[in-house]
Design brief:
The structure holds three protein chains of three kinds. Chain B has nine helices and four strands, in the order H-H-H-H-E-H-H-E-E-E-H-H-H. By secondary structure, chain B is an alpha+beta fold. Chain C has four domains: 99 residues, Ubiquitin-like (UB roll) (Roll); 161 residues, Alpha-Beta Plaits (2-Layer Sandwich), CATH 3.30.70; 211 residues, Rossmann fold (3-Layer(aba) Sandwich); 167 residues, 3-Layer(aba) Sandwich (Dimethylsulfoxide Reductase, domain 2), CATH 3.40.228.10. Classes of the chains: A alpha/beta, B alpha+beta, C alpha/beta. The structure holds flavin mononucleotide, iron/sulfur cluster (SF4) and FE2/S2 (inorganic) cluster. The site of FE2/S2 (inorganic) cluster has 12 residues of chain C, from loops.
Chain lengths: 428, 225, 762
Amino acid sequence: MAELRVLFKDIDIPGIDTLDVCEQNGGYSALKKALGMTRQQVIDEVKASGLRGRGGAGFPAWIKWNGIPKDESQPHYVLCNADEGEPGTFKDRELMMRHPHQLIEGMVIAGYATLAKVGYIYIRGEYTEPARVLRRAIDEAYRAGYLGKNILGSGVDFDLYLHMGAGSYECGEESAMMSSLMGERGQPRLKFPHAPLPTIAGLWDCPTLINNVETLSCVPSIIRNGGAWYASMGTEKSTGTKIFSVSGHVNKPGNYEVEMGTPLMELLELAGGVKGKLKAVIPGGSSVPILPAEKCDVNLDYESLQAAGTMLGSGGFMVLNDTVCIVRFMRRTAAFYAHESCGKCTPCREGTRWMLKIFDRILAGGGRQEDIDLLLEICDQIDGRSYCGLGDAAAWPIRASIKHYRHEYEYFIEHGYSVVESKEAVTV
Amino acid sequence: MSEAIRLSDYTHVRRLNEKEPPPLRFSERAVQELERIKRHYPTKRAAMLPALWIAQREYGGYLPPEALMEVAYRLGTSYAVVEGVASFYTMYNKRPVGRVMLEVCTNLTCSICGGYEILRYLEQKLGIRAGETTPDGQFTLTEVECLNDCGNAPVMQVGNRYFGGLTPEKLDALLEELKQREDHTVVQLADTIVQVHLPESDRQEIERALAGAQAGNEEQDEQNG
Amino acid sequence: MAEQELVTIEINGIELQVPKGEMIIESAKRVGVDIPFFCYHPRLGKGQAANCRMCLVEAGTKQPDGSVRMMPKPQTSCSLPASQGLVVYTDTVAIQKARRGILEFLLINHPLDCPVCDRGGECPLQNNTLFYGPGVTRYVEDKRHLPKAFPISDYVVLDRERCIHCARCTRFSQEISGDAQLEFLKRGADMMVSTFQDTEFTSCFSGNTIELCPVGALTSRRYRFRARPWDMKSQKSVCTRCSNGCNIWLDYRPKRLVRVLGRENEAVNEEWTCDRGKFGHEYINSDRRLLSPLVRQGEKFVTASWAEAYQVIASRIQQAVRAHGADSVGAIGGAHLSNEEAYLLQKLMRVAIGTNNLDHRLERNQLAGGDTLLTRFGVPFTQTAIADIERAKTVFIIGSELVDEQPIVFLRARKAWYRFGAKVIIAYPEVTETELRFDEPVVLRYREGTEPVLVAGLLHLVLSSAEAGSRADAVWNSVSVYTPERVAEETGVSLDALREAASLLGEGTVFLCGGRVRNHAEYPTLVRTLCRLVEVTGNAGRANGGLNILLPEVNSHGAADMGVLPDMLPGYAPVGDVGARQHLERLWNVSLPAQPGLSSQAMLERAAQGQMQVLYIVAEDIAQKYHDPALAQRALENAGFVVVQDLFLTETAQYADVVLPAASVAEKEGTFTNTERRVQRFWEALDSPSPDVKPDLNIFAELAVYLGKPIPVFSAEQVMEEIGKAFPAYADCHYDQMPPEGIRWQALTRVAESREKATQLT
Ligand SMILES: Cc1cc2nc3c(=O)[nH]c(=O)nc-3n(C[C@H](O)[C@H](O)[C@H](O)COP(=O)(O)O)c2cc1C
Ligand code: SF4
Ligand code: FES
């Protein structure tokens, strides 16, 4: 039972966020190595690593990289998703604040492999602290010739810009992020082909590689040590390590990097154990189905969690003890999605607000038993029919909570108050 | 009948002429910044979000209609489009706000770790409800969605900084401190975000351009004087 | 056109071949499968919005082994492109359920005010609910409440409660009209359509959003509460408000026009109209229409019978002709008449009275169209078909506030840019509405009046970048002195802008010239230089290039074609051309005056000096609209006798001795020829406001009888048959064989050829 640090390996070295220290610890050696490889070799290395997207969907990274057209008839772009908005997740924040050069290096390599000359890091507006760290790091990298024209004399150009959001969860969805970057309302757009496949017509209708901060941060070590090395960690289909942002009722909340396939309970222990009695875990951010304590005997990898009826998601690992009232907790979840729904498509716009209104009525003591099934049906009517994943993400947790905690709903509706005597869960 | 409604009954309906430039208030620095930022993208329109941040700073922490018009004018797009964008994002203030914004996270982790208590405490302490501004114009208190620093729950954003692990005692001290400080204000947040967009080379060019303009002005003054 | 790749797909078990990439919602129509939708619109969007989610289908792909792999989620058929082996089911239990779900969502916040909603009866939301919707709602919460219907302009009322957020209106305003005045505010369930700060919706295409809105959220102030769709009849018509010739529907109840809707014509207006078209036909209903002929008695008009009126007119004309010769009589007007009427007007003047004094032109420059374009290019005014503008590589708009002057041509020009990436150059002395609708067009802000220098300068630049060999000729000599520096100096346009513009002028450049070109003091020089520029850039014979002098009025082109000109017979044959004249003399069985008549300007000048005995003003308020109104007023005061034929007692009519009440376009039939030479039919819809109101056609024919020189006609159709003989370009325009998109007459390869052909026909 231990952390297995790849991304976080150097994170405790004082000054690793500065270029000098970073270089002394091997920073940018992967870039140098990559520039000596062919583009396809770089992509093949990523393929060999088995790296999957860490933004939530877990789509194989190399397929996206490989799918970008291999000619330069149009400009290509690399877009780093640093919008980290999934409730319960704060790993990208730490990666950017503590090891910015790792991300920058990953982006240049991605740019090299996919023929992009321009990259953007889209950071949520609230993240000014990580953004400032990145700003300084990017300026350093420019000065040292890791960015800009003719990088390290290789003839490769890559400009990297920071772009900040302004308060919208939906802008973490990749096509909405593109809209937002292009100066539009942060609503998802039709891009070709649909997510998660490689985007051939994305930013300004050009080929665009989009990856999460954590995904791109994995790249330097994969190139440095080889894809096979990375694939030797984790499980067969979920290779490498994963950072989990553990929060809620644990004694030592924080980010923990563990090998894929680590038992869930081990992660809980790493985080200092549960405060009080474990009630449930939400392992992958607010969008994934809740996992009741009795089902927590599961390993942390894409497949095992899927089999347990939930998902790895973004790794936002929220721990709830028995003081939490599920109905109130889900009301807050519903409020989040209703607030963040971009409004573009019917099911998500209307459905999320409707669910919130039902929750509010239940909490105000006006619930009816049939509301539980109505909620389930609204979930069905949103799930799979919305424009982007936000609708699905709004439906899954509520559906799962009713599945596992129906009795709490029934109790609340019957009595007008919660089955849980909770001080901490005063939510409305 | 159709004539039952008359445009003149609706005093809010004014005719706007987009052919005329609106009143412009951006400082020389702001203009320079926007010009550099525009070059980061293949289209002017893509500079929309940074331009709105510049405007939020230039107009003192929020975006009155004039600010939206100025942004539209400078990006060559319509007023309505800019308003549509500005109103989509929560961090653009559509109404005047206090000098400092206290944005308390009440999302999932924070809600079970005391976020609402923090919010209620601040409401009591400041004598306002979430969404309101103190009469002295110092603080605006709002409830926000996940700030994604859940490891430090409960968390609050103040300008360009996060404060985690909040307790009532910590808040008391913090509020006092914030009254004195200038670096976590709403305007400062906007400025921080603008600066983050500007690479070193842009910043240097801007300084040079401003110095040049300054020198030019002085020369002018000398000649005139 | 490149061959389109076809793919085989299957819809509900029916196999069919469709073009690759066609959206399935379109493919389904081919096999009669109905897929309900709200946000989809074939003309909106580079891609579709796909946001209402009503058009969901289940889809999968055929695998090599013949099995079908279904996609895990239902797909929106409006954004699902056809690809080889695609298998689609549109009516499964899951899809029926999905549709019910979507409709339930749309209805939870939709007010139940259908009985008082203008959309009732033609509302897609109502219809889809009927066919696919849930019977009951499970929604017990409060509905969204917003201020009810309020006007956002003189034409449009917005009711935000009814909006289903389909984004058709916002997409239209951003993609098609380009003014981007409608946009969504806020997000999620709070999202709402708005203009900037609720200011007035000033788009000149606002009316289209009313038709696009699938619910009653955007309705027409003019039509509001006036009628129900099932109480109305519709007739096909053509808009008369400018020379574009947009196709429209007139929706009417007996004796009353209720509203105008856009009618599809791919070649002209696609399906759009401008607001002048959609709301500018109210005059037809006016209770100030003339209802019977009026004859002056002293200071007053008294109503008269047609017989009385004709007698007065005929005797005055005959008197004038006897005493002062036929050339003491003249007619002004024609640009608002149908082709048939214009033709008859000139026949009345030439045959029944015997003068060439007739003219339809009111502008300062009275272009005959014959001049340069006709001899060089075989067309009088315009080379490019409206529909071909969208295929241009460069659109050069010069001297025109296009949005206002030619709204529908503007939409094509914008489409060329927005959809197909054409470059745009705009030359105008002031900031125009038009240039704001393009992102960073090349703007040539020249000093007023310097158009000829500007164009010469561009020609100079184009030539100097061409091979040296081609420079030595006369064309080069004509512009060699117009060096960029000099042109920049004289016009005030920067060198960079000049160079950039010149570099964009290549094959596939459409030149769109507006009022400032038409009325330039040095029009002949200007247009000659433009012609050369068109030739030098290789656009003389191209479909997606060429010179276009856009015309002002609905039938300016037709009136010129019909020879409502003092010096041209029908078909642009000079009056002095013996062959042409003889051809018509044979056709009409008369002898024609050989001397050119007086232009509008000359007639008015003469009249002002008291030298015109009779002025016959047809459907033009010259006292207001003549480029020199003061001259027109003096002329009307001092003319011996004035006949005005119009719908209203216009200011011009106040000067008349006899006023004849004419029928409106909705009350008669005929054809108009739009600015691109397209001949289009319009049909009779309403009854005239009084039995004493007559179509101009009848008036001309009857007046000829009173003049003792009948020009027999029975119908507009018959006149058109004769026009075909007089001007063979119209020979194919048989009423019963007119294709729905009308007939655009072909460029005359040689003008003489046309006349030869004409001679053979008789
Ligand atoms: C509503 C929604 C919000 C999302 N938010 C984020 C986010 O904040 N950060 C992120 O990296 N990915 C987010 N994603 C996932 C992205 O759409 C996308 O899958 C990811 O950026 C791809 O990168 P990856 O392949 O490296 O994971 C979100 C998706 C949805 C549907
Ligand atoms: S107003 Fe009408 S057209 Fe516009 S979004 Fe709403 S429903 Fe659609
Ligand atoms: S018609 Fe396809 S989603 Fe609206």
